[in-house]
Q: What sequence folds into this?
């Protein structure tokens, strides 16, 4: 059985000066935000499908430089959530629409400090969450977070 192409090959549609979405022939859209770090591998920042936004894991990279930010786990967590927020905005969603996150921590001793920073972004009605201890993350980051969010629909 031949593989179905993921992208239609169409040029990205501009949504503002630095954000684009790509349509595909299989009912899903790739999302790209210039306000979040560029993918460091063969993956999309997010995919829109079935009324949801599936975000790839974000690490605490500065979108302007592509470098890991300086600072403790709280600062790294805030940068990760800012990056996720930028991707969700490009997709037409927001952190308020997140239904599930997965947090990857290199050191579980960072859990309390990560949790405190996380709560400032997702604390009102927090999504379901898993937190997993890992041996290492790309570029020596201490935290990575991925999420699934509802695609916001326009108000009537």
A:
């Amino acid at each position: 059985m031949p593989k179905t192409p993921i992208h239609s090959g169409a040029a990205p549609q501009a949504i503002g000066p630095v954000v684009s979405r790509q349509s595909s022939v299989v009912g899903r859209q790739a999302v790209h935000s210039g306000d979040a770090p560029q993918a460091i591998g063969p993956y999309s920042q997010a995919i829109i499908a079935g009324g949801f936004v599936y975000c790839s894991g974000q690490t605490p990279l500065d979108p302007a430089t592509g470098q890991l930010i300086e600072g403790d786990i709280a600062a790294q967590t805030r940068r990760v959530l800012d990056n996720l927020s930028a991707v969700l905005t490009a997709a037409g969603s927001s952190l308020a629409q997140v239904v599930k996150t997965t947090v990857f921590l290199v050191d579980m001793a960072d859990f309390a400090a990560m949790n405190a920073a996380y709560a400032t972004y997702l604390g009102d009605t927090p999504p379901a969450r898993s937190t997993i201890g890992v041996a290492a993350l790309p570029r020596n980051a201490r935290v990575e977070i991925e999420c699934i969010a509802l695609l916001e629909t326009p108000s009537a």
